[in-house]
Write a structure and sequence with these properties.
With 124 residues, the protein is an alpha+beta fold. The chain contains 2 helices and 5 strands; from the N terminus they run αβββββα. Strand 1 and strand 2 form a beta hairpin.
Length: 124
Amino acid sequence: MSARFRRCGLGIGPLHPGDHKAVAEFTAMLTARQRPALWTGHGDVAVRIAPDARALERGRPTKGQQPDADPVALVLIHPDTETALTGTLHCAKTRIHGAWTEPYRLLTHALAGRDLSPDVDLGT
């Protein structure tokens, strides 16, 4: 049996290679969160589930969706398996954070092992 140890910020000595990877992923997530890529109406989108929440979910516009439509019809999907988590939802453009990028994966409910609420409302 192996034990997993997490390094606190006060450890001495050089960082372990696993620590470097975690720091790089976290830094990429913060950068993507502060400067989101512009969503042009095509491709996957990062959606804020609650107006005041920090969590983002991956959404995919439905087939035939017009790029300039408001609200946008989309389906929330799992960031790793790309299976649908919800049916079609109507999402206000104000809830769209930007284009989906891999660093947002750290902010999803799926990665945290939590399920989405069945009554998700993205209308406002």
